[in-house]
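One thing: can you check what follows?
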Amino acid sequence: MLAGRPAGVTAADGFALAATEYAPVGRARAAVVVNSATAVRRRYYDRFALYLAAHGFAVLTYDYRGVGDSAPARLRGFSAAMRQWGELDQSAMLAHAARWQPDVPLFVIGHSVGGQIVGLLPDPSPIRRVLVVAAQHNYWRLWGAPQRYTLWALWHLLMPGASHVLGYFPGSRFGLGEDLPRDVALEWARWCRSPGALVEAVGGDAAERFARYAGPLLALSFDDDTWFAPRPAVEALLRLYPSASAEHRHIAARSLGVDRVGHFGFFRDLARERGWPIALEWLGRGLT
């Protein structure tokens, strides 16, 4: 019976990250690194990872620094940033996956912010395919009313204010997942306030980094995900990857045989029958 195995991975700056390996029976068809959504623990993707492993993929899930098992007991005073998630944590996982499963293609699946941070990689050339699920550009004006006004208040007032006062952001109190380190929350809010902040996060070679990924990219979004990843925000993210061979499928929840998918439903069992085969078929193209 397939099961995940804990793995410790160390980033280039020496930070220890918690990860889980899901190995298939026999030789892997490809290795897949799963980039989580913001404030979501890696265990959320357990069942999806096991599904892929049962179909021949080696899968690596992990917690970003400051989240889940990669977080200290107290977040107040803990230093971490979203840029580090993309540049250091993600890079460490890609390198680990390549060592763990050598000589097979390397893929990335990015949920929400996990699709954004692929563009923060200094060198995405080892990646052969990228699947992004409910991944979006953060800028609040890409949302329609009334969501944009609520989000304006979140990014301009609530998140910066609470993070400065408390020394961390208590996301669990507001239904926004795990609590986050202060600088992660402040950077997240900054990305959401400005149309250029996400790209500018990587500094001088900003747009060039996003353009470095030139492989296939499939974006899945859902018609009922209006609060977190509406269609215009997903399309805006894809424009940041001008060199990718990009495809966008905007899916009606009812076409998957369910009433609601939203931002998080794709990785739940409700999407197993009709949703997960979409990912499986696309990831498996050209593989034996």
Observations:
- The chain has one domain: 5-140+204-283.
- The beta strands are 5-10, 16-22, 30-35, 57-62, 106-111, 127-133, 168-169, 180-181, 216-222, 245-251.
- The mean pLDDT is 95.
- Residues 4 and 22 are 5 Å apart (CA to CA).
